[in-house]
# Entry
Amino acid sequence: MLKVHHLSNSRSQRILWLLEELDLDYELVLHPRDPVTVRSPESLFKIHPLGKGPTIEHDGGALPESGAIIDFVTRKLAGGRLSVPESSPEFSDYLFWLLYAEGSAMGPVVFDLLDGMTGGGCGEALRGFYLNEVKHSFDFMENVLSRQEPFLASGFTAADINMTWVLELSEPCGHLEAHPRMTAYLRRMQARPAYARAMQKGGRQDLTMFRPAQPLPLT
# Structure
């Protein structure tokens, strides 16, 4: 059976959501974050050298990295459901949104989180760079969602699951305040029954933990 190693308050929540949407059986192993460093616990390093959540185990192998897990699950375990086949005219769009989530969209948001977690440790020069990237990226997404919803014109896919975490992580930072379509889209994704089931199993997210009262060291 598929085993999912879930890190609390992390992007691995979307893998549980994906599996609930697909109605696939899986064994769930919960790994709470270190309460001091808010990083992965040692238990995850015993599953894979990177110590990342999510990590899945299947047929004797361990696979981290959300985008890779989504592609593996949809194509190998779900017969292509919630993905887009190569023969589809939307295949390139599907790949774009699936990978954009952890690529261009997520990077600047992570810098913002690190800056907040370390009490301004990223510095003014880097802050100006990543805030400009966030604005450019989020204006682009807002424009797309003004023409269609979800991100593919044909309907909901696993790419939306990957993209939703970007918006969830961005909301506590205030990046959705000027983007009403993205906010409405996020609420509709969060209202899906499979999303609620995933939250019940994996634990509700508390993203305020990424804005600690006392700054954390960068090391």
